[in-house]
Specification:
Blueprint lengths: L2 H7 L12 H8 L9 E5 L5 H9 L5 E6 L2 H10 L4 E4 L5 H4 L3 E6 L8 H14 E12 L6 H13 L2 E4 L10 E7 L3
Parallel strand pairs: 1-2, 1-4, 2-3, 4-5
Antiparallel strand pairs: 5-7, 6-7
InterPro entries: Methyltransf_25, rRNA_Ade_methylase_Trfase_N, SAM-dependent_MTases_sf
Protein name: Phospholipid N-methyltransferase
Keywords: Methyltransferase, S-adenosyl-L-methionine, Transferase
């Protein structure tokens, strides 16, 4: 399954023209407690680059649930990774499918979302994360100054007790950085 093809079919739903790099995937899953998590949720897994990084860190008996709005990408991910529970649907309805999660990782195109959609998805993330739960997502360096990206950063700061940003991952096209946030226990 080609992420470029899916981008051309539906650019509003597929925010990347190319799949994220393994370097970005490693940065996204680093330091968020995947190894100790009982349940990890991935929003917008696309072709599964982050999924693979999560699976290598997931502990025995832990669950990984992936929520993908694109049915073609969801089906391909389910066929490739039998261990992953794949839900075809919007992250805006996450709490309908998931009760609690220790970690939520997102590959969603936040800078493309209008304010209301950013808020709805972040509300859902906050609803399912347990006290002390962690959230990680990424943003492209060139888009960090856009109003939607700034709104997203402000929304993170309002919702989480801790918010941080990684160094730039230059080994991604385009270069990106990781937002990490934690729910205060």
């Amino acid at each position: 399954m080609s992420i470029t093809r899916e981008f051309l079919r539906a650019p509003a739903h597929t925010g990347a023209i190319a799949a994220s790099s393994r370097r970005l995937a490693a940065a996204v899953v680093a330091g968020i407690g995947v190894e100790r998590a009982a349940h990890v949720v991935e929003l917008g897994p696309g072709t599964g680059v982050f999924t693979e990084a999560l699976l290598t860190r997931l502990g025995p008996g832990a669950r990984l649930t992936a929520v993908e709005v694109n049915p073609r990408l969801a089906e391909a991910l389910a066929q490739r990774h039998e261990r992953v529970e794949v839900i075809t649907g919007s992250a805006e309805h996450l709490a309908r499918h998931v009760r609690t999660a220790d970690v939520v990782v997102s590959g969603l195109p936040w800078a493309l979302f209008p304010r209301a959609r950013q808020e709805r998805v972040l509300d859902q993330v906050g609803e399912v994360l347990v006290p002390g739960g962690r959230f990680a997502t990424f943003a492209y360096l060139h888009a960090a100054w856009l109003p939607a990206a700034r709104r997203f950063e402000a929304a993170l700061a309002r919702r989480f007790g801790f918010v941080g940003r990684s160094r730039v991952v230059w080994g991604n096209l385009p270069p990106a950085f990781v937002h990490r946030a934690a729910v205060t226990p």
